[in-house]
Specification:
Rossmann fold, alpha/beta, 22% strand, 2 domains, six-stranded mixed sheet, 8 helices, 12 strands, six-stranded parallel sheet
Length: 264
């Protein structure tokens, strides 16, 4: 009897992930002979070595999601990238294909963060009653942040990226600059893209001057979805912001990943 088709999530740490529950429920409901597992590897080379060693795993693997810290590290091992993944240099969906004649295994990289964040942003703007914003502050400069910036650019929203290395990123600003008069207040949208505050390190949050948030309808989005209310969100709420976590983005990313994996 052949093994079920294997999907999974590659990253570290990922024990908090909701992806297995989402996909395994989908597989069970639809009668799909597949399972979704966690590939918890701090070092990408260890995952690649396991793929090489474990023939059952490599033979049944049809695709996997990628999260921190491997969204960029995985790229050299991919056969091709989607346009979004190529521009962002960040991959969070890998589709495994096998050549019919040779059986050669090829990995293709995609980025579903853009689709996921677009849906979340649309929801946040609508729910907050502030459907039009012209400026955003993006916290962090990793793969998720690049996807957010890509989406904001598509939506015509100007943005700055606050980073500890502002000179290394486009539109970068320093954390200290946010303390200057009128700076923090000028951002009607704040998007938190770092792992700070994620389970189990729930007491952490970016070092922002939260007390300077504009109390008139600021929207604060945290891409973290566990816990449901992060420390960043709680601090923003304290100073009057409308807050949203990353749960909707996760669901929309998962839907997009499944669409990619199902396509021939």
């Amino acid at each position: 009897m052949s093994s079920p088709v294997l999907y999974g999530l590659l990253g570290y740490p990922i024990e908090h992930s909701k992806s297995p529950a989402f996909f395994n429920t989908l597989f069970s409901k639809e009668g799909i002979p597949a399972r979704y597992a966690l590939f918890s590897y701090k070092e990408l080379t260890d995952f690649l070595a396991e793929i090489e060693r474990n023939r059952d795993m490599s033979g049944s693997l049809a695709g996997f999601n990628v999260t921190s810290p491997h969204k960029s590290d995985i790229i050299p091992y991919l056969h091709a990238l989607s346009p979004e993944a190529a521009e962002l240099q960040a991959v969070n969906v890998v589709k495994v294909k096998r050549e019919a004649l040779t059986g050669k295994v090829l990995w293709y990289g995609y980025n579903s963060d853009v689709v996921g964040f677009s849906k979340l942003l649309e929801h946040a703007l609508r729910q907050s009653g502030n459907p039009y914003v012209s400026k955003a502050l993006v916290v962090g400069s990793g793969g998720a942040a690049r996807s957010v910036c890509y989406c904001l650019k598509q939506e015509g929203i100007d943005y700055n990226v606050v980073s500890r290395t502002p000179d290394a990123v486009t539109n970068g600003v320093s954390y200290s600059s946010l303390n200057e008069d009128g700076v923090m207040e000028s951002y009607p949208l704040i998007v938190q893209c770092t792992p700070l505050g994620m389970t189990p390190n729930i007491s952490t949050a970016p070092p922002l001057p939260y007390e300077k948030i504009n109390r008139r309808g600021t929207i604060a989005i945290d891409l973290v979805y566990s816990p449901e209310v992060t420390r960043f969100m709680a601090l923003c709420q304290e100073y009057g912001a409308h807050t949203f976590n990353g749960d909707m983005m996760l669901v929309e990313q998962a839907k997009e990943a499944w669409r990619i994996w199902k396509e021939e």
